C-alpha cells in the first residue's frame, strides 16, 4: 500500500481544508513544531482507512476541530496496479459516512456496499491486506506502537505476521481440504444410495427384454400404417360421390335459405305497400294545412305593417308615451311652482316687517346698556373713595402732630378732619350697579341676535322667490316643446289625454303583434308537420329500396342454374324485376318466387337421398381392410370418414406405443451405462476422501503455519540483527527464541538478554532495525503477492538518541530511499528534517495548521 494524496478538513489542528500530494516523495520528513499536527497526519490516514485512531479508538468525533460541524479525510492510495480513494466523514453528532472508489479511467464506486461503513471497511482490509493492528506495526508506526512488534505480545505478533505474510492461506487450504473431504464423502454416500434405489433393477437382462418389446411394437405400427393406406384408398373413391352429395345438400340448403328470404321479402313488401298508402294520404293533408297557414301569416303580417306605418313601431310609441307622461308632469310642476312663488312673496313681506321691529328693539337695548354701564362706573368710584376714607381713619387714630408719617416719613404738621365712613353702603351700591349692567348687557345680546336672525332670513326668502319664478319659466318652455312634438306625432292635433291615446294605440299594436306571432307559429307548426310527413315518406321509400335490394341480392338466376345442373327437372328462373313495379306487384312476384324455390329444393332432396344409399358398401369395404388388427364395431349410421378416423387413431396409438417402448429400451441402456459410471464415481469419491483427509491433517495451524511463523521470525531477527549492528556501532545483535526477541551485547562478553531490558534509545534502535528488516524482507517471506510494504512511516524516538546514534540512524534511513519504497519520518528536529530530500512542512496559525511540500535539501553534514 502506497499513499498518493491526503486531503484533511476539520481534523484536530487542521481546521481549513489541507491537501498533500505524495507523488514524487520517496524519502521525506514531516516536520513542524510540537503540537502543529505532525502525528495527526498519520492519525488521519488510519481514520480514513480503518475509522480508528489510537488515542481515541473509534470515538473519532472527539478529533473534530473546535467549532467545526464535522471532519472529513480523503486518502487516495495505490495497491500494486490498483488505485483507490476513500472518503470518510464524521459529524459532531450523527453517523459516520464513507465512500470507497476505484480508478477505472474515472473514479467509480468500488462495488455494492462501498458507501456503507461495515462493507467498505471489509473492502479496504481486503485491498490493503492488513487490519489496523498489523498496519500500525508494519507500515505506519505511531507513537507508543513503535516497539510493540519487538517487545509486544507474542500471540499478537504471530497473528500480525500471519496476516502480513499471507500464512492464512494455509489455514484456508486446510479448511478447503476438509470441505472437499466432507463433500466427497457426501457424494460417495449419495451415489451409492442411487445405485441401491433408482438403479436397483437395471440389469443387462432387463435391457434385452425392453429391446425385444420395442421391436414387436414397431412391427405392429408398420402393419397399421399399411391398413390405414388401404382405408384411405376406399375413402378417396368415395370422396367423388361424397362431393356430389355435398353439392346437392349444399344447393338444397341454399335454395331453402333463398325461399325463406323471398318469403320474408314478400311479407315486408306487403307491409310497405300499406304504409305507403297511409303516408301519401297524410302528406296531402299536411300540405293543404301548410298552404292555409301561409295565407293566414301573410294577412296578419300585412295588418301589423299597416298599423306600424300609421302609428309607428312599438318602441317609437313607447318613447312617445314617455314624452306624454313628461308633459303631464311638466304641467303639474308649473302649477306647483306658481303656488310656491306666491307663498315665497308672502314670506318675504313677513320677514321684512320682523326685521324692522327687531331693529327698534335693539336700539332701545343699546341705550339701556349705556346707562347701566355709567351707573356701574359711578358706583365703583364711590366704593374706592369709601375705602380711602376708611384707611385714613385707621392711620390717623395712632399718630399726633409732630410725629413722622407712617406712610411717607415726613413730619405731621396737622391732622385731617374726621369724615364718616360709608363703606358698606358703597359696596351694596356697587353690587346693584353690576347687576343692572349685566341685565342690560343680556338684553342687548338677545336684541342683536333677534335682529341678525330676521335680517338673515330675508335674503334666502328672496332667493326662493327668484328660483321658483325661474322654475316656472323653464318648465313652461319645456311643456310647450313637448306639446308641439306630441301634436305632430299624433296627427297635428294634441288630444286632451295624450297618454290614454298613445296607450290605446300601443294596445292595438300589441294585439296585431300577437296575431302575427300566432300566425307565424301556426305556419312553423304546419311546415314542421309537413317535413315530418315527407321524412316518413322518404323512410318508407328507403325501406322499399332496401327490400328491393334484398330481393335483387338473392341471385336467383345463378342459384337455379346451379340446381338445374344437379337435377334437370328444376324449372328455369323467372324474369328479374325492372325496378319500376309497385310494392304490391313486387310482393306478389316474391311470393311466387318463394314457391318456385321450395319446389326446387324438394327435387334436390330426393336426388341426395338416392345417392347417399351407396355409402354403407364403402364403409364395409374399409372395415375389411383393417384385417382384424383392431376391434371394429361399426353401427348402421357410420361413415367412411368414421372408419378413416378409427384407422388413424389405431395407427397413432401404435406409433406412440412403439416410441414409448423404444424410449424405454434406450433409457434402460443409458441407465445401465450410468449405473456402471456411478460405480466408478463412488470409488473416485472414496479415494478423494482419503487424500484430502490426509492433506487437511497435514495443513493444521499448529503444524505448518506455526513452522512458517517461526522461520519468518528467525529470518527477520537475522536481517534485523545486521541493521541493529550498524545502528548500534556493532554493539548489539538480534536473536529470536521461544517466541521472544533478545539482544546479544558484544561489548559485555556476548551477554544475551531480553529486548524488554533495553533503554529507551536502545529500544528505539532495535525496533527501527526490526521495522526496516520487515519492510525489506516481507515480499520474499510472503506466500502471496498481496503482501507488499511499499511505504513506511516512523513517528517515534529520534529525540531519545544521542548525536552519534542519530547520525547513524539518519544514514540508515537515507539508504531506504529507493527500490520504489516510500519512507516518511516525523520529527521536530530541524537538522534531521533538512537532511532528507523532501519535507512536508506543518505551520501553526490562529486559524489552524497549514501543510506545504518543500524539496529543498541542505548540504549533508554531521548532526550537532
Query: What is the H level of CATH, i.e. the homologous superfamily of the domain at 1-139 and 791-864?
Result: P-loop containing nucleotide triphosphate hydrolases
The CATH class label of the domain at 1-139 and 791-864 is Alpha Beta
What fraction, in percent, of the residue positions are helical?
A: 55-70%
Please name the CATH topology of the domain at 1-139 and 791-864.
Rossmann fold
The class by helix and strand makeup works out as: alpha/beta
- Major beta sheet summary: 6 strands, antiparallel
Topology:
Elements: E1 2-9, E2 18-21, E3 27-31, H1 38-50, E4 70-79, E5 82-91, E6 97-103, E7 107-109, H2 117-128, H3 132-138, E8 140-141, H4 148-151, H5 154-165, H6 168-196, H7 204-311, H8 314-396, H9 423-489, H10 498-552, H11 556-566, H12 583-612, H13 615-625, H14 640-698, H15 701-727, E9 732-737, E10 740-745, E11 751-754, H16 760-781, E12 791-794, H17 803-816, E13 822-827, H18 830-835, E14 838-843, E15 850-854
Parallel strand pairs: 3-13, 3-14, 8-12, 12-13
Antiparallel strand pairs: 1-2, 1-4, 4-5, 5-6, 6-7, 9-10, 10-11, 14-15
Structure commentary:
With 864 residues, the protein is an alpha/beta fold. It is flat. It contains 18 helices and 15 strands. Among the domains are: 213 residues, Rossmann fold (3-Layer(aba) Sandwich); 175 residues. A hairpin with a 2-residue loop joins strand 4 and strand 5. The strands form 3 sheets. It has a 6-stranded antiparallel β-sheet with strand order 2-1-4-5-6-7, covered by helices on one side. A 6-stranded mixed β-sheet has the order 8-12-13-3-14-15.
Amino acid at each position: 500500500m502506497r499513499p498518493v494524496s491526503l486531503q484533511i478538513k476539520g481534523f484536530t489542528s487542521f481546521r481549513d481544508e489541507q491537501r498533500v500530494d505524495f507523488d514524487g516523495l520517496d524519502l521525506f520528513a514531516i516536520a513542524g513544531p510540537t503540537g502543529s499536527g505532525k502525528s495527526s497526519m498519520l492519525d488521519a490516514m488510519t481514520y480514513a482507512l480503518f475509522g480508528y485512531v489510537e488515542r481515541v479508538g473509534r470515538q473519532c468525533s472527539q478529533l473534530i476541530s473546535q467549532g467545526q460541524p464535522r471532519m472529513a479525510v480523503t486518502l487516495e492510495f495505490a495497491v500494486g496496479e490498483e488505485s483507490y480513494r476513500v472518503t470518510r466523514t464524521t459529524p459532531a453528532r450523527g453517523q459516520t459516512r464513507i465512500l470507497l472508489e476505484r480508478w477505472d479511467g474515472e473514479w467509480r464506486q468500488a462495488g455494492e456496499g462501498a458507501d456503507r461503513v461495515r462493507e467498505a471497511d471489509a473492502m479496504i482490509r481486503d485491498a490493503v491486506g492488513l487490519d489496523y493492528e498489523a498496519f500500525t506495526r508494519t507500515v505506519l508506526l505511531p507513537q507508543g506502537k513503535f516497539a510493540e512488534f519487538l517487545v509486544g505480545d507474542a500471540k499478537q505478533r504471530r497473528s500480525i505476521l500471519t496476516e502480513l505474510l499471507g500464512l492464512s492461506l494455509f489455514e484456508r487450504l486446510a479448511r478447503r481440504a476438509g470441505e472437499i473431504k466432507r463433500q466427497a464423502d457426501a457424494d460417495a454416500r449419495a451415489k451409492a444410495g442411487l445405485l441401491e434405489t433408482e438403479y436397483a433393477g437395471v440389469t443387462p437382462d432387463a435391457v434385452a427384454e425392453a429391446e425385444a418389446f420395442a421391436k414387436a411394437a414397431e412391427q405392429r405400427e408398420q402393419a397399421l400404417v399399411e391398413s390405414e393406406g388401404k382405408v384411405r384408398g376406399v375413402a378417396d373413391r368415395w370422396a367423388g360421390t361424397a362431393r356430389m352429395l355435398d353439392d346437392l345438400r349444399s344447393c338444397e340448403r341454399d335454395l331453402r335459405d333463398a325461399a325463406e328470404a323471398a318469403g320474408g321479402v314478400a311479407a315486408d313488401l306487403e307491409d310497405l305497400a300499406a304504409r305507403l298508402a297511409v303516408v301519401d294520404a297524410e302528406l296531402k293533408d299536411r300540405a293543404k294545412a301548410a298552404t292555409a297557414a301561409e295565407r293566414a301569416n301573410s294577412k296578419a303580417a300585412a295588418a301589423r305593417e299597416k298599423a306600424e306605418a300609421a302609428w309607428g313601431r312599438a318602441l317609437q310609441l313607447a318613447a312617445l308615451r314617455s314624452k306624454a307622461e313628461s308633459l303631464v308632469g311638466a304641467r303639474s310642476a308649473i302649477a306647483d311652482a306658481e303656488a310656491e312663488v306666491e307663498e315665497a312673496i308672502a314670506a318675504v313681506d313677513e320677514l321684512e316687517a320682523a326685521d324692522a321691529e327687531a331693529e327698534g328693539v335693539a336700539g332701545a337695548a343699546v341705550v339701556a346698556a349705556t346707562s347701566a354701564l355709567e351707573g356701574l362706573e359711578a358706583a365703583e368710584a364711590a366704593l374706592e373713595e369709601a375705602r380711602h376714607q376708611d384707611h385714613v381713619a385707621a392711620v390717623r387714630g395712632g399718630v399726633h402732630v409732630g410725629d413722622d408719617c407712617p406712610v411717607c416719613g415726613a413730619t405731621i404738621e396737622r391732622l385731617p378732619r374726621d369724615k364718616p365712613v360709608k363703606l358698606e353702603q358703597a359696596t351694596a351700591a356697587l353690587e346693584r350697579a353690576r347687576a343692572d349692567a349685566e341685565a342690560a348687557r343680556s338684553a342687548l345680546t338677545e336684541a342683536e341676535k333677534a335682529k341678525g336672525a330676521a335680517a338673515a332670513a330675508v335674503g334666502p326668502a328672496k332667493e326662493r322667490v327668484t328660483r321658483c319664478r325661474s322654475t316656472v319659466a323653464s318648465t313652461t318652455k319645456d311643456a310647450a316643446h313637448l306639446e308641439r312634438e306630441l301634436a305632430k306625432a299624433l296627427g297635428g292635433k294634441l288630444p286632451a289625454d295624450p297618454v290614454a291615446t298613445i296607450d290605446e294605440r300601443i294596445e292595438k299594436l300589441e294585439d296585431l303583434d300577437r296575431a302575427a306571432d300566432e300566425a307565424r307559429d301556426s305556419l312553423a307548426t304546419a311546415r314542421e308537420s309537413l317535413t315530418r310527413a315527407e321524412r316518413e315518406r322518404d323512410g318508407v321509400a328507403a325501406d322499399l329500396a332496401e327490400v328491393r335490394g334484398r330481393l335483387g341480392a338473392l341471385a336467383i338466376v345463378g342459384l337455379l342454374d346451379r340446381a338445374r345442373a344437379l337435377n334437370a327437372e328444376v324449372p328455369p328462373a323467372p324474369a328479374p324485376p325492372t325496378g319500376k313495379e309497385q310494392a304490391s306487384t313486387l310482393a306478389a312476384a316474391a311470393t311466387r318466387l318463394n314457391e318456385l324455390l321450395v319446389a326446387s329444393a324438394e327435387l334436390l332432396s330426393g336426388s341426395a337421398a338416392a345417392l347417399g344409399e351407396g355409402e354403407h358398401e364403402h364403409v364395409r369395404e374399409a372395415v375389411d381392410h383393417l384385417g382384424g388388427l383392431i376391434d371394429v364395431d361399426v353401427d348402421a349410421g357410420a361413415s367412411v370418414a368414421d372408419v378413416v378416423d378409427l384407422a388413424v387413431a389405431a395407427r397413432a396409438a401404435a406409433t406412440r406405443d412403439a416410441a414409448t417402448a423404444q424410449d424405454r429400451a434406450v433409457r434402460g441402456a443409458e441407465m445401465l451405462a450410468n449405473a456402471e459410471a456411478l460405480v466408478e464415481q463412488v470409488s473416485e469419491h472414496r479415494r478423494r476422501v482419503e487424500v484430502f483427509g490426509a492433506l487437511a491433517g497435514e495443513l493444521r495451524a499448529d503444524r505448518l503455519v506455526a513452522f512458517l511463523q517461526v522461520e519468518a521470525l528467525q529470518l527477520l531477527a537475522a536481517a534485523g540483527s545486521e541493521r541493529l549492528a550498524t545502528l548500534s556501532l556493532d554493539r548489539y545483535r538480534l536473536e529470536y527464541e521461544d517466541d521472544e526477541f533478545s539482544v546479544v551485547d558484544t561489548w559485555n562478553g556476548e551477554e544475551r538478554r531480553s529486548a524488554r531490558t533495553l533503554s529507551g534509545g536502545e529500544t528505539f534502535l532495535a525496533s527501527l532495525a526490526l521495522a526496516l528488516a520487515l519492510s525489506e524482507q516481507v515480499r520474499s517471506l510472503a506466500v502471496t503477492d498481496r503482501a507488499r510494504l511499499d511505504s513506511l512511516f516512523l513517528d517515534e524516538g529520534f529525540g531519545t538518541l544521542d548525536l552519534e546514534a542519530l547520525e547513524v540512524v539518519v544514514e540508515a534511513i537515507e539508504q531506504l530511499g529507493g527500490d520504489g519504497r516510500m519512507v516518511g519520518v516525523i520529527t521536530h528536529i530541524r537538522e534531521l528534517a533538512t537532511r532528507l530530500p523532501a519535507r512536508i512542512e506543518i505551520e501553526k496559525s490562529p486559524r489552524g495548521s497549514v501543510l506545504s511540500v518543500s524539496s529543498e535539501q541542505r548540504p549533508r553534514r554531521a548532526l550537532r
